[in-house]
Amino acid sequence: MSSKAAPYLSPRARRRQVWLQIHRWLGIVLLVPMALLGFSGSLQVWPEETVALFNPEREVAATADPAMLNVDHVAAARAALAEYGTIAEIELGEPGTAIVATSVPYSPPQLGSRGPVARQVWVDPDSAETIDSGDTADFMSFMHLLHGILLIPEVGRQVVGIMGLFLVISGVSGIVIFWPGLRRAVQALKWQKRSGAMFNLHRQSGFLLSLVLIFEAISGAWISFPGFFASLIEPGVEQPQRRRPGGPEGTPMEAEPAAWMAAAQSAQAAYDGRLTGIRAPMEETQAWTVTMSSPGKTAEVTVPLAGGAPQVKEEVARQGPPPPTTRAGAVAGWMRGAHYATIGGFAWQVLVFLSGWALTFLAISGVWVWGRRELFGKKKAR
């Protein structure tokens, strides 16, 4: 009986083998969640453009102005939403966009979504025709939930945060495995003919985007565990409560198209600005809510159903959330902005977009390369 001695490995080679095992098994075990987090994150870099790409029927003329709302627009929206309930709100965006009317909720929250499901219709400002309809629980909201909580209620955000920490380890281990030294880095990135295309692409894309992926993983974990990371930046700081976006509380009342226009006209008489939205009167408040804008300012005009003078609440227009009041809040805001590429300019948006698709590709190609070597390599050796 003969035995074959194991080949000698230097301490450095043994360490590399350990990193290789970590990298390999993280990739195998976390293939599905990493692939899902990657492409769902990429789709959110340019959300408006993504929505337009998947919904070309919502495109209207560049000169079409939603603020020029009239009875025909409201009537078209009301007819399209008839089987889902009364209109709860009408949104009037910038010129070149459609009028969007939303019904009262008609279905409970789905797959961990933030609120009940309502129906929306898009109306062309020029023709007053309904050009599209769909649920508020649409494709992009599904992608947002997939990326934010992996569709897991209650603990999904924490699960995603843990995935982020594992991705940091995977990214670091990949760099350690690949790193040939500073002088040979460019040479090592060249296409290796003896290796398959999948392995070459895995090695090249992983190395080139590794730092972006590691940062996205860290910032994603930061978003998932805000309290923990805030305590590292500013021990003892009070954490603000997470705000859940949602519609106004109350029961919207049914109203004729002419009543919607009368509310809009009353608001325009009380405030000199552009219409941006109208919310149906609530049974509890017995008043319409009309939102308007003027240069550098926004206003909310309350129009009582029983008549009387409208009440105007004007504020300075602000883009995004209010400024942070603590150092930890400032860092958290920067992390969130960088993670979703809302700051950093176009170049950073491109890097984040590519890194998301790279993560999906790396998750799939890594398992593919491993499986090919394990299955086909052993068959050839027999």
Mean pLDDT rating: 89
Q: How many domains?
A: 2
Strand residue content: 5-15%
C-alpha Rg (nearest Å)? 27 Å
End-to-end Cα distance, whole Å, is 20 Å
Number of helices: 13
Task: Please list the strands of the largest sheet in the order they lie side by side.
Answer: 4-3-2-1-5-6-7-8
Number of strands: 8
Taken in chain order, the helices and strands follow as: HHHHEEEEHHHHHHHEEEEHH
Shape type: elongated
Give the SSE map.
Elements: H1 11-29, H2 31-42, H3 47-54, H4 71-80, E1 87-92, E2 99-103, E3 119-123, E4 130-135, H5 139-149, H6 156-178, H7 185-188, H8 197-208, H9 210-224, H10 226-233, H11 257-270, E5 274-279, E6 287-294, E7 297-304, E8 311-316, H12 327-339, H13 345-381
Antiparallel strand pairs: 1-2, 1-5, 2-3, 3-4, 5-6, 6-7, 7-8
Helix pairs in contact: 1-6, 2-5, 2-13, 4-11, 6-9, 8-13, 9-12, 9-13, 10-12
Kindly describe this structure.
Helix content is 49%, strand content 13%. With 382 residues, it is of the alpha+beta class. It folds into 2 domains: 11-44 and 145-234 and 326-381; 61-125 and 254-316, no CATH class. A hairpin with a 6-residue loop joins strand 3 and strand 4 (130-135). Helix 6 (156-178) runs antiparallel to helix 9 (210-224), helix 8 (197-208) runs antiparallel to helix 13 (345-381) and helix 10 (226-233) packs across helix 12. The longest helix is centred in the C-terminal third of the chain and has 37 residues, at 345-381. 28% of the residues are buried.
